Amino acid sequence: MLEELLKPLPFAQTMTAAMLAILFLQSGLDKVLDFRGNLGWLTGHFAKTPLRGTVLPMLVVITLTEMAAGALSAAGTLHLVVHQTRGLALWGAQLATLNMVMLFFGQRIAKDYAGAASLVPYFLLCAGAVLLLGL
How do residues 53-97 score in pLDDT, each as one tens digit? Predict the structure, then answer.
């Protein structure tokens, strides 16, 4: 089993799923543990945009999506190690990619172009994970 996991493709798939698990669980937990602080910051961030009245539901959706992407990626990492199956990890990567698109949309609407640009590497990681796990 270990020999199989150390082959380039399974190793890359497992490490990519683990990376997404860490990224999205940490980000989602940060939002859960400091929900009020995140809500306050985002309310100011979107104050002069058409999205100003939707900050609370947007934060809830983003938080749930991040937590789900992280949990699926973590479970997927375990499934890759124990069962050599990619399904859960692929779902996690797909949800993570959707989350990045939602975040990118929000940053562009808020005209935070630097913030939007900083999401591009994360999007590429997520989209690459979808391709890698879909093999």
Answer: 999 999 999 999 999 999 999 999 999 999 999 999 999 999 999
**This model's pTM is above 0.90:** yes
Task: Yes or no: say if 121 and 129 are a contact pair by the CB < 8 Å rule.
Answer: no
71 close to 25: Cβ distance less than 8 angstroms: yes
Question: DSSP readout, 26-94?
Answer: HHHHHHHHTHHHHHHHHHHHTTTSTTGGGHHHHHHHHHHHHHHHHHHHHHHHHHHHHT---HHHHHHHH
If one counts every other C-beta atom within 10 angstroms of the C-beta of residue 66, the result is 25
Cα 75–Cα 85–Cα 63 angle in degrees, nearest 5: 30
Of 49, 97, 42, which Cα lies nearest the Cα of 69? 97
Say what percent of the chain tops pLDDT 90. Answer: 96
Task: Report yes or no: 110 and 87 within 8 Å, Cβ to Cβ.
Answer: no
Does residue 109 carry a pLDDT above 80?
Answer: yes
